[in-house]
Amino acid sequence: MNRFEYATVPLLTHATKQILDQWGEDGWELVTVIPGPNAEQLVAYLKRVKQ
């Protein structure tokens, strides 16, 4: 059975792809994106199999 670790990452609207690509390179899978504390920001929830 896999165990997962999770992370929340603030996303800037002008750099969303670069941020998600970098986390993906590190083995993280995007779970969802929700609005952040202000209109200019989103928050990504990610997971990966725990090592």
Short characterization:
By secondary structure, this protein is an alpha+beta fold. It has one domain.
Query: What's the total count of β strands?
Result: 3
Strand content: over 45%
Count the domains. Answer: 1
N-to-C CA distance = 13 Å
For the biggest sheet, the summary is: 3 strands, antiparallel
H and E string: EHEE
Your description of this structure?
This is DUF4177 domain-containing protein. It comes from Sphaerisporangium krabiense. The protein is of the alpha+beta class and 51 residues long. It has one domain. 20% of the residues lie in helices and 49% in strands. It has one helix and three strands, in the order βαββ. A three-stranded antiparallel β-sheet has the order 1-3-2, covered by helices on one side. Strand 2 (29-35) and strand 3 (41-49) form a beta hairpin. It is elongated and about 40 Å long. The mean pLDDT is 93.
Keywords:
single chain; 51 residues; alpha+beta; 3-stranded antiparallel sheet; 1 helix; 3 strands; elongated
Topology:
Elements: E1 4-12, H1 16-25, E2 29-35, E3 41-49
Antiparallel strand pairs: 1-3, 2-3
